[in-house]
From TrEMBL:
Top-rank taxon: Bacteria
GO molecular function per UniProt: oxidoreductase activity, acting on paired donors, with incorporation or reduction of molecular oxygen
Domain Luciferase-like: 4-296
InterPro entries: Bact_Lucif_Oxidored (IPR050766), CmoO-like (IPR019949), Luciferase-like_dom (IPR011251), Luciferase-like_sf (IPR036661)
Name used for this protein in its record: Luciferase family oxidoreductase group 1
Lineage, top ranks: Bacteria, Bacillati, Actinomycetota, Actinomycetes, Micrococcales
Source organism of this protein record: Psychromicrobium silvestre
GO cellular component: cytosol
Pfam families membership: Bac_luciferase (PF00296)
Length: 321
């Protein structure tokens, strides 16, 4: 609360450096627009910065909202990132706008672009410009040949499809892509993952299904402390549902805020942070999630007022997993 965009980005850099130091495999950043609580509006710009300030961790978009952009622009940006940081770049693609309708229209510049009917074609076009040309795309393009995102690539980013629905799960499976499910704000991971695996067709990119579950966690020395630190995330979850999203409040402000019975009931259903407690409790919950879904990877996010609380959670998971 009261922090500048610059301070928020400095915190993201420190968090990425902590994840790098602790041995985590990936660090992804999101794309959101015109949101008072989110400074990450342009993943490629931020990823270039993070690549220069980390050593080995893979960096990616969680994700680029492809309907907001021309496929060529996305492919060129991520080809350039891969050239700068070879073997370290993930292109996670999503189809939601990452904002409200009016802002999405401003991004896309005309109402015809608001449709997502061409999303599968645009995904394949992006993939083709990054070295993965599919026969279905050649057929759809007719006489037009796929463009190239860079003159002479020595490697390409790893492409993921992101989602929270059956649509994205099935599409990722049919295209033979890696799939990341947004469990941190969507409830039914198992159904989506099972659909992905049933739909999976081996491809040049991937010979067998590969699932990431993105979820949220917060660890503190006691359960009571963890619940206290999770307060701001619950206030934000309520604000998001009511369209009143603002800067994140402090844990003290969240504790002092009064909640109606309806809000308390809503908070039982809202995701906020999924796993909250001591290291032992949270690790057990995350292991159970992996067992239920058969996930190949977990992506952990969290929503706290203080950066150090997020770093403490990463440290505790690294030590106790």
């Amino acid at each position: 609360m009261g922090r500048s965009s610059g301070q928020a980005l400095q915190s993201s850099t420190a968090l990425a450096q902590a994840a790098d130091r602790l041995g985590y495999a990936r660090f992804w950043v999101a794309e959101h627009h015109n949101m008072p609580a989110v400074a990450s509006t342009n993943p490629p710009v931020l990823l270039a910065h993070l690549g220069a300030h980390t050593e080995r961790i893979k960096l990616g978009s969680g994700g680029v909202m492809l309907p907001n952009h021309a496929p060529l622009v996305v492919a060129e940006q991520f080809a350039l990132l891969e050239a700068l940081h070879p073997g370290r770049i993930d292109l996670g693609i999503g189809r939601a706008p990452g904002t409200d309708g009016l802002t999405a229209q401003a991004l896309r510049r005309h109402t015809d672009a608001m449709s997502i009917e061409d999303f599968p074609l645009h995904v394949m076009e992006t993939m083709a410009m990054l070295g993965d040309v599919r026969p279905e795309l050649i057929e759809a393009l007719g006489t037009r040949q796929p463009l190239s995102a860079t003159p002479n690539a020595s490697s390409y980013p790893e492409v993921w499809l992101l989602g929270s629905s059956g649509y994205s799960a099935q599409m990722a499976g049919m295209l033979g892509l890696r799939y990341s499910y947004a469990h941190h704000f969507a409830p039914d991971a198992l159904a989506a993952v099972e659909l992905y695996r049933r739909s999976f067709q081996p491809s040049a990119a991937l010979d067998k299904p590969h699932v990431m579950i993105a979820t949220s966690a917060l660890i503190a020395e006691t359960a009571e402390r963890a619940e206290f630190l999770a307060g701001p995330s619950r206030v934000q979850a309520l604000a998001l549902r009511s369209g009143m999203l603002g800067p994140i409040v402090t844990p003290e402000q969240a504790a002092e805020r009064g909640f109606s019975e309806a809000e308390l009931a809503a908070m039982d259903r809202l995701p906020a942070i999924k796993a909250v407690g001591t290291a032992e409790t949270v690790v057990a919950q995350l292991r159970s999630l992996v067992e239920q879904t058969g996930a190949d990877e977990l992506m952990i996010t969290g929503y706290t007022y203080d950066l150090q609380d997020r770093i403490n959670t990463l440290e505790a998971l690294a030590q106790n997993w």
